[in-house]
């Protein structure tokens, strides 16, 4: 047969190269894939929204002369000492265990340099982290790993974690490779043995119990510290309403693009809502309860830039949180280390086997030699630079929309590029007045 006239090989859109490789991998090994990071599939996201800059009907603010405020107060509902930040981008909870001690310290240094907060994680508070972080939020998690009253009282706020965007309804994993003597001691676990974090709190099952738990935490902290409640995005309207009813000062909603240290790939890719779909229902719940801007809303999940932050704020959030972007700013997935990534079967930009603890940069590891590669001072400076750029980018956009504070951005400043994004963000499709599902016509 004349091969010159054959059609070129054609991949199936359904059985694409990744699906085929995954079937082959599962068939060869009999185990499911575990990895870090967030959903890799394409999802409706902030890229699908655009700002409408000022024109004749609006006038912009002058960049170098007119102020555009960025400060935010979190926890103004009940806490005697609310958290006051200079910029509305916070560092999300990432555990010591998942991250090295140096990485946790670097996060604290970077965040403190720009006047924002960091958050502990599943595994407790390290002294370096407390020292480096001017404002530190203490996570109260289903696993209770590393949880103790002494550390809780050292924190500036408490975050009750119900769930995470990468795995709403599931618990985390920390494989034996990363259970070093220090991690084991803090979590009260044997060294070197795989550990799975609980997916629900042991002592309460629903909102009425949550209310009691929050009151206990308030009593323990003399009503001083703000109490946040963090949920993975799945039923944002009801979850926000129930968190408010239970007494939260701050609601944190994490979308499915949100990173995780380690979970099953099937979970990361198939459970939860993209953050774009979760913000408006959460804001709606706050508005329906008369609590918008009284109970603050922090959103996270795939936030990469000042533009993403500005869009989240315009949709009604009070602040955003970042995990993955902060790790990249510290030095994660550094292309200069490509040779080392190749040796562990990865490539810079796609390295996500964080559970293996082999990170050549020294961030997602407990190996003392690898961890020592990350200089917390230098990495902290890189994070501070990145956070400053994010803040300035958001200000550039806000000024162009004529806003003297980032919190004055509003849905009216946005349009959507796709019908899906228009419906989810409840803003008009670009060039029309059509908001799918809410048509005026
Ligand atoms: C390495 C790593 C560890 C994490 N550990 C925790 C944790 O201990 N507790 C928690 O609530 N969320 C944890 N998260 C999720 C983050 O708090 C946050 O919700 C998520 O990273 C936000 O999405 P982003 O990574 O796209 O910014 C972790 C995320 C990463 C990347």
Element layout with pairings:
Blueprint: H1 17-29, E1 34-35, E2 49-51, E3 72-74, E4 83-85, E5 89-91, H2 101-113, E6 117-119, H3 127-132, E7 135-140, H4 149-154, E8 157-161, E9 173-174, H5 181-187, E10 195-196, H6 207-220, E11 227-232, H7 236-245, E12 250-254, E13 263-264, H8 265-270, H9 275-288, E14 296-300, H10 306-314, E15 319-322, H11 324-330, H12 338-343, H13 368-371, H14 376-400, E16 414-416, H15 419-425
Parallel strand pairs: 5-15, 6-7, 7-8, 8-11, 11-12, 12-14, 14-15
Antiparallel strand pairs: 1-13, 2-16, 3-4, 9-10
Helix pairs in contact: 2-14, 7-9, 9-15, 10-14, 11-14
The chain binds flavin mononucleotide.
Descriptive notes:
The structure is a single chain. The protein has 441 residues and is α/β, with parallel strands linked by helices. The protein contains 15 helices and 16 strands. It has helices at residues 17-29, 101-113, 127-132, 149-154, 181-187, 207-220, 236-245, 265-270, 275-288, 306-314, 324-330, 338-343, 368-371, 376-400, 419-425, and strands at residues 34-35, 49-51, 72-74, 83-85, 89-91, 117-119, 135-140, 157-161, 173-174, 195-196, 227-232, 250-254, 263-264, 296-300, 319-322, 414-416. It has an eight-stranded parallel beta sheet with strand order 5-15-14-12-11-8-7-6. Helix 10 (306-314) links the parallel strand 14 (296-300) and strand 15. The protein is globular and about 60 Å long. It starts with 16 loop residues before the first helix and ends in a 16-residue tail after the last helix. The mean pLDDT is 95. It binds flavin mononucleotide (FMN). Flavin mononucleotide binds at residues 36, 38, 92-95, 98-99, 121-122, 139, 161, 164-165, 230, 254, 257-261, 300-303, 322-325, 354.
